[in-house]
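hey so u asked for the seq, here:
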Amino acid sequence: MAQPEGYRLSDYRSPTPDGVAGAETVDTSDVQSLLSQGSLIPIFVQRLERSTLPGSPWLQSKPYRQIPGSVWLPNVGVGAPDPATLGWFEAQLDRLTGGDRSRGLLFYCLSDCWLSWNAAKRAVLLGYARVHWYPAGIDGWMDAGLPTEEAHPLPPPAAPAP
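ran it, C-alpha cells below
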C-alpha cells in the first residue's frame, strides 16, 4: 500500500503502508535487538478518550499492556490532534530525548493501527533522525510470547479552552 501524503484521519484500525518516509520499519526481532542496546525510547500511542470534567483526565475503560519500559502518549497519533495535544507531543519528545533529536524513538500501537504510523511520521517531520515504526505493535510482541507490563498513560495535556 502506498503511503498517503498527509495523515490518516479515520479508520485507524485498518491495513497500513509498508513504511513511513524517513523512519525505519522494524519487526519484533529488530525491536528486541534495539531495546537490548538501550538506545531506544519505546512509545505506545494507543488512543484514549478524555473526560469533559475540569482537568480532563484520561478515561481508561480497560487495562492495556505495553512493551516494558514504554511511555504511553495517548492520542498523539490521531490524524488531526488539537493544538494542545500537538504541543504536548512535542514537549514530551523533547523531555524524553533530553532535546537530542538523534535519540532513537520507537512508535507502536496495536497491529494494523494508523495511530503509530501517524505518530512516527509526525516525529520525523519534527526533525527526529532515528524514528522506528513497529507496525505489529503490542499484538505482535505478545504473539511472540515476549514480556509486557501494564500500561499507564502520562497525564494529559491541559484541556483545550472552550
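The helical segments are 28-37, 83-97, 114-125, 137-143. The chain has four helices and nine strands.
lmk if thats what u needed
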